[in-house]
Amino acid sequence: MIDLKYLQNQFEEASIRLRKKGVSDKALEELKQRFESLKAANRAYEDARAEQNRLSKLFGQYKREGRDVSELQQKVNALKEEVNRYQEEARNAEEALMSLAMGIPNFPDASVPVGLDEEDNVEIRRVLEPRTFDFEPREHWELAEINGWIDFERGVKLAKSRFALLKGQGARLQTALINYFLEKNIAKGFEEYAVPFMVNSRMLEGTGQLPKFEEDLFKVCEEDLYLIPTAEVPLTNIYNGEILPAEELPKLMTAFSPCFRREAGSAGRDTRGMIRQHQFAKVEMVAIAHPDKSEEIFELMVENASELLTELGLPHRLVELCTGDLGFSAARTVDLEVWLPGQGKYREISSVSNTRDFQARRAKIRFREGKKNRLVHTLNGSALAVGRTIVAIMENYQRPDGSIEIPEVLKPYM
Fold it and tell me: Which residue among 44, 73, 172, 185 is the one 20 to 30 A from 326 at the CA level?
C-alpha cells in the first residue's frame, strides 16, 4: 500500500506521481475527501475525550467536596455516549480511507519513462541475433502437432479452453527447464522453497492481488483459499507480519509452481497455443531486501533472467516499462521479451519488478535497524515462465522437417 502519510502531507506532489500510473482525478479527489473526513472524525473524538477527562476530574472534585453530583453525572453519562459515537465514526472513516487506499497502485520511480501503454515502453538492449531461416518458420502449435508434444484438444476436454496437455518429450522438456532454472537460481544465491499452491485472502492482500484483482483469481469453493497466480505470493508472504534482523537481509528465494489465472481481461487475445493459459508452470525469484540494496538486487535478478535466456541460445531484449504499463504493485519493472520467429516478434517471457515498500506495508514485513523497525523492500521476477520458454525453444530450434533440436545446456536434464 502507498505511504498514506506522504500522500496526505504532500498531496499535490503525490497526485502527480499517481496520475502517471493512471489514477483518475476522481479517485484522488475521493482520497482527499476521506482524509478530511478522518481528520474531522478524529478531531471530534479527541475533543470529546478531552471534555470527558475534564468532567471526570470535576466529578471527582465534587465528590471530595461533598457537593451534589447528580447533574454532573448526567452530563458525564451523555458525554460517554458521545465519545463512543465519535470513536465509531472515526473508526468507520479510517476503514473507508483504507478500503479506497488498498485499490490505489504504487508510486512509479522517478526514473520510469512516462507513457500510456506498452507502445511507450523503452528498449534497453538486445541480446543475441535472431536466427535467419532458409525456410518459413512454423508457429509453436504447428510444431506441437508435428512432434506430438502438446495436445490442446485433450487439454480442453480435461478442463476447458486455455488448458493444455504436455506429453512425451514436451513434458520432459518442461521438467528439464524447471530443474535447470532452479539449479541456476540456487547457484546465484537463491534458496529453493516448495510452497503451497493455495493461499488465503490475507496473503493476496499483502502482495496486492486483492481486493482489486479478484476477478483474475480462482477461488476454491467457499473456503478462504485461492489458487496462486504466481509463487511470488507465498514466497513474499513467508515473512508476513514479521520483523527480521537487519543482518539476515537480503532473503533471496526461488520456487517452482503452477500458476493459475482466469485471464479475465484477455478475451480474444492469444487464443491459440500456449502463450496465454489458465494454468502454466513458472520458476520465480523473490527478494526481501534492505531499502539501500534493493536496486542492486533488482539488477542482479534482471541479469540472471537474461543469462538463462542467453545460455539457452534464445534471442531476447530488455524493456523498461513506462508508467502506464507498470503493474499495480511495481515501482519499476524490466520485461524480458524473447524472439519468436513463428510470430516474427518479441513476446514477454519474464517480468522483474521492484515494489519498494509497497507490498511490505500491506504485509507488515519489517526489519530491525538499531532501535527502529523499518519496512523492507520486496522484489519479484520470473526465471523463467516455463511454457513460454518451451514455445521459444520450439520456434527458435525448429528444423525444416518440423523436428526440434534441444539446446545444449538442457541435454543433461533430458
Answer: 185
**Is it true that the peptide bond before 227 is cis, omega within 30 degrees of 0?**
no
Question: Cell digits for 383?
Answer: 526465471
**Residues 27 and 104: beta-carbon distance below 8 Å:** yes
- CA within 13 Å, CB half, 306: 19
Determine the angle formed by the axes of helices 25-65 and 70-101, rounding to 10 degrees: 160
List the catalytic residues: 261, 276, 348, 351, 388
B/e letters for 31-53, b = 16+ CB within 10 Å, e = fewer, are beebbebbeebbebbeebeeebe
Q: What is the DSSP string of 237-265?
A: HTTTT-EEEGGG--EEEEEEEEEE---TT
Per-residue pLDDT of the chain (414 residues; tens, 9 = 90+): 899 999 999 999 999 999 999 999 999 999 999 999 999 999 999 999 999 888 888 878 887 888 887 888 888 888 888 899 999 999 999 999 999 999 999 999 999 999 999 999 999 999 999 999 999 999 999 999 999 999 999 999 999 999 999 999 999 999 999 999 999 999 999 999 999 999 999 999 999 999 999 999 999 988 999 999 999 999 999 999 999 999 999 999 999 999 999 986 666 677 788 999 999 999 999 999 999 999 999 999 999 999 999 999 999 999 999 999 999 999 999 999 999 999 999 999 999 999 999 999 999 999 999 999 999 999 999 999 999 999 999 999 999 999 999 999 999 999
Q: Set out the domains of the chain in order of their start, with CATH numbers.
A: 4-101 (1.10.287.40), 118-413 (3.30.930.10)
pTM for this entry: 0.92
Nearest of 217, 177, 169, 167 to residue 197 by alpha carbon: 217
- Render 271-289 in DSSP notation, one character per residue: -STTSS-SEEEEEEEEEEE
